[in-house]
């Protein structure tokens, strides 16, 4: 978590570079290196998505090489959307942190606290899914509770409680629903939000920033993946995104 805060301050960026590699094996290794090298200057974090690595032979090896290529001062969030009982989650945590070398993970909270706690190691960042960016998420996450609020609010409350107990817990909140971003920000005024959905999924960047930035102009990690992977000049696209984001927020002290 400290690494993320330091990085966002020093590089003046809230951009998370998503790494969802597609293509044949030889191409992919080369393209991963290119995207990392071209965007690193602008990256607050990198987020490799585990599925895109596991779907290829030697995927874990490629993932480890990818993480090794990322400069050491930029946090790596392994997007595995893990979520299982504590005994099993502990093994996922060992994989993410000890084998892959990630600084953080994404976790699905559906099974409750014990699916999350094994990832909450000192210095690590755990992003708990609260309101995801995919449209059909509403069938579960927007279910209204008899006590008021929505199921996604429960995920946020669990995340907040665990953050108070362990530290290092943030939320995943998609950019495709700015209203939810605002609601969850009011429930979790201080936590970091990982925000996917900008770019290929059509999320509204300006509305998301307005709704989700903390009072200090920070607290959001804006992820985009396909747009950068497909860009002729990933570095230029990353720079533009950072400029756009920074124009819409107070500059960090
Ligand atoms: O946890 C995530 O990162 C995630 C959560 C969510 O609500 N929506 C979402 O798209 N993601 C991930 O964020 C990335 C989005 O990719 P692009 O749509 O190409 O920018 C993918 O790796 C998704 O798996």
UniProtKB/TrEMBL annotation:
PROSITE patterns: OMPDECASE (PS00156). Pfam families: OMPdecase. It is an enzyme of class 4 (lyase). It catalyses: orotidine 5'-phosphate + H(+) = UMP + CO2. Keywords: Decarboxylase, Lyase, Pyrimidine biosynthesis. SUPFAM superfamilies: Ribulose-phoshate binding barrel. InterPro entries: Aldolase_TIM, OMPdecase_AS, OMPdecase_type-2, OMPdeCOase_dom, RibuloseP-bd_barrel. Its EC number is 4.1.1.23. The keyword Phosphoprotein does not apply. CDD domains: OMP_decarboxylase_like. Residues 14-241 form the Orotidine 5'-phosphate decarboxylase domain. It comes from the Bacteria. Pathway: Pyrimidine metabolism; UMP biosynthesis via de novo pathway; UMP from orotate: step 2/2. Belongs to the OMP decarboxylase family. Type 2 subfamily. PANTHER family: OROTIDINE 5'-PHOSPHATE DECARBOXYLASE (PTHR43375:SF1). This is Orotidine-5'-phosphate decarboxylase. It comes from Hymenobacter algoricola. The gene is pyrF.
């Amino acid at each position: 978590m400290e690494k993320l805060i330091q990085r966002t301050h020093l590089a003046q960026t809230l951009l998370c570079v998503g790494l969802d590699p597609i293509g044949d094996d030889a191409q992919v290794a080369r393209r991963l290196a290119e995207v990392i090298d071209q965007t690193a200057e602008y990256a607050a974090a990198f987020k490799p998505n585990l599925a895109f690595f596991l779907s290829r032979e030697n995927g874990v090896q490629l993932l480890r090489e990818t993480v090794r290529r990322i400069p050491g001062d930029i946090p790596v969030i392994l997007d595995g959307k893990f979520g299982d009982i504590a005994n099993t989650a502990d093994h996922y945590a060992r994989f993410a942190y000890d084998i892959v070398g990630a600084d953080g993970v994404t976790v699905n909270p559906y099974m409750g606290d014990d699916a999350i706690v094994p990832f909450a190691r000192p210095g690590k960042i755990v992003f708990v899914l609260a309101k995801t960016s995919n449209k059909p998420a509403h069938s579960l996450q927007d279910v209204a509770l008899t006590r008021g609020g929505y199921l996604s609010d429960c995920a946020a409350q669990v995340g907040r409680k665990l953050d108070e107990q362990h530290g290092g817990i943030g939320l995943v909140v998609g950019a495709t629903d700015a209203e939810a971003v605002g609601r969850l920000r009011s429930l979790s005024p201080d936590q970091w939000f990982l925000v996917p959905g900008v770019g290929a999924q059509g999320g509204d960047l300006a509305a998301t920033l307005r709704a989700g930035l903390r009072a200090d102009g920070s607290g959001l990690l804006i992820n985009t993946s396909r747009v950068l992977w497909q860009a002729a000049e990933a570095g230029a696209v990353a720079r533009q995104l950072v400029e756009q984001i920074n124009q819409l927020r107070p500059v960090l002290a």
